[in-house]
Amino acid sequence: MGVVAPSARPTLVIGVLASCGLAVSLMQTLVVPLLPQFPRLLSASPGTVAWLVTATLVAGAVCAPVLGRLGDMYGKRRILLVALAMVTIGSALGAVAPGVGLLIAARVLQGASLGVIALGISIMRDLLPPDRVGSGIALMSSSLGIGGAICLPITGLVAQHASWRWLFAGAAVLGALQFLLVRKVVRESPQRSGGRFDLPGAVGLALALVCVLLAISKGTEWGWGSARVIGLLAAALVLFALWSRFELRARSPLVDLRVSARPEVLWTNIASILIGFGMFAGFLVTTQVLQAPVATGYGFGLSLLAAGVVLLPIGGAMTIFSPVSARVSRRRGARTTLVLGTVVLAVGNVAMATLPASIPLVMAASTVTAIGAALAYSALPLLIMDAVPTSETAAANSLNTLMRMLGTSSCSAVVAAVTTGLTTVVGGRLLPSGDAYTVVFLAAAAAALGGAAIAAFTPRAKAAGPSTPAPVPAPARA
Q1: ∠ CA 238-244-249, rounded to 5°
Q2: Is the Cβ–Cβ distance between 291 and 304 less than 8 Å?
Q3: Is there a contact between 127 and 2 (Cβ–Cβ < 8 Å)?
Q4: Is the distance from CB of 377 to CB of 277 less than 8 angstroms?
Q5: Which of 38, 109, 360, 361 has its CA 20 to 30 A from that of 210?
Q6: CA distance 474 to 478
Q7: Which pTM value belongs to this model?
Q8: For residue 356, with 0-12 CB atoms within 10 Å meaning exposed, 13-18 middle and 19 or more buried, which class applies?
Q9: Per residue, what are the HEC states of the chain?
Q10: What phi-psi label fits residue 244: left (phi over 0), alpha (psi between -120 and 50 degrees) or beta?
Q11: Parallel, antiparallel, or unpaired: how do β-strands 429-432 and 423-426 relate?
């Protein structure tokens, strides 16, 4: 039995930690409704304003593995509090930022939110009773999609009727509240890996990730054949090679590449990239379809707020199917859940590729996609934790989170390239054609099916046992 002996305690811990996933969702969607308006509001060029998204993306990629490793070494709850503090400070800074430069710095601090999910999942594994771990992790994993569905109409409403600074102020209040709740409710994990922090490894990985993500996020703007993009990708290859060589020789590496190279870990991470691609297309593109003019032949002419309301069932579906995922994983294994989820995800994307002619059909197709994402995302951490030592769960989950993010970043780049390459003129405006969205959704379906195939043939972890991790010794009470 874990430390959470009272019967109500596990539910409270799960609720508090899962709510932290909302912070990640909010940080990702916070500025999206205002991107077209920020050049005017901040007196900045569109290229500079785009860094409000890029900065958070790059900072999150760097923070995720670093915070995960620090959590394994010094305490997952302690580092989770550090991450929430960074998010809160960044949000407060953004609310009072006088210009775009300080606002970009605030968005960098908000990027620490990406480490929150992996840390929360690892804390659940260490603290919860065995029969509650699966459902807790499922809800935590799905909180990203749940929060995205809820936050989009909220941010749209604020963007339409109030100052953009209220979005950052609200994020600061949410971050501070979550910091206090985690400090009050969640005990520290008993698991420690020890060792010294691998600073050279962290710097090397950060530089390599910055090169990759800058190339992906700026490829459409700079040109995929430009010297900058090709140079960044080449630099990333060299840096990853040097970093891998160093990590294999390090006594206490940031990422244990020998563990990460195990087939059950490696192939699950590769599948995570494809699943991230397949999941993000729906979140990124469906709102654009709903807001496109009716004259395009596929759009519905809705406002940002109305489009967000139409997509609210996505959050409800992910909330309902997170515990379903846990039950399937407990009875049939997490790999079965992952294969089932990715197949459902592919079906939803194929349905969206037909460009449904009515809003109820769009809602139905996007809900199917959300169900598949909930099943798949809930199973991934269980597979990873089955395959790694308990002392490395936070670092391993952070790396898996990073793989998912590479998938979503790649999806963003593909969407940008396709929607600018396949266009139509409507009312004097250049807009993406219906074929562009069909291509995007079919690519997402293909990625999901690729993830399903990889998951189906990935070998099981050598440590045989159920997907739900075994109980761990209880720490002393605070």
Answers
A1: 135
A2: yes
A3: yes
A4: no
A5: 38
A6: 12
A7: 0.81
A8: middle
A9: CCCCCCCCHHHHHHHHHHHHHHHHHHHHHCCHHHCCCHHHHHCCCHHHHCHHHHHHHHHHHHHHHHHHHHHHHHCHHHHHHHHHHHHHHHHHHHHHCCCHHHHHHHHHHHHHHHHHHHHHHHHHHHHCCHHHHHHHHHHHHHHHHHHHHHHHHHHHHHHHHCCCHHHHHHHHHHHHHHHHHHHHHCCCCCCCCCCCCCHHHHHHHHHHHHHHHHHHHHHHHHCCCCHHHHHHHHHHHHHHHHHHHHHHHCCCCCCCHHHHCCHHHHHHHHHHHHHHHHHHHHHHHHHHHHHCCHHHCCCCCCCHHHHHHHCHHHHHHHHHHHHHHHHHHHHHCHHHHHHHHHHHHHHHHHHHHCCCCCHHHHHHHHHHHHHHHHHHHHHHHHHHHHHCCHHHHHHHHHHHHHHHHHHHHHHHHHHHHHHHHCEEEECCEEEECHHHHHHHHHHHHHHHHHHHHHHHHCCCCCCCCCCCCCCCCCCCCC
A10: alpha
A11: antiparallel
Give the whole-angstrom CA distance, residue 193 versus residue 108. Answer: 28
Q: How confident is the model at residue 461 (pLDDT cuts 50, 70, 90)?
A: low
Helix axes 263-291, 434-457, angle to 10 degrees: 160
Name the token pair of 417: 């390239």
| Residue 92: closest CA among 193, 169, 176 | 169
Close Cβ partners of 234 (under 8 Å, ≥ 6 residues apart)? none
Please choose, from the candidates 25, 14, 12, 33, the residue with its C-alpha nearest in 3D space to the C-alpha of residue 315. Answer: 25
Rg (CA), the chain: 21
Query: How far is the C-alpha of 124 from the C-alpha of 117, rounded, in Å?
Result: 11
Q: How far is CA 5 from the centre of its chain?
A: 31
User: Highest mean pLDDT: which of 189-193, 202-206, 439-443?
Assistant: 439-443
Report the sign of the C-alpha dihedral through residues 195, 196, 200, 205, in that order: positive
- pLDDT band (50, 70, 90) for residue 7: very low
pLDDT tens by residue, 8-50: 488 888 889 988 877 777 787 788 777 777 888 888 887 788 7
Look up tokens 């910055």; give the residue. Answer: 210
What dihedral do alpha carbons 67, 73, 76, 79 form, nearest 10°?
Answer: -50
Beta-ladder partners of 234:
none
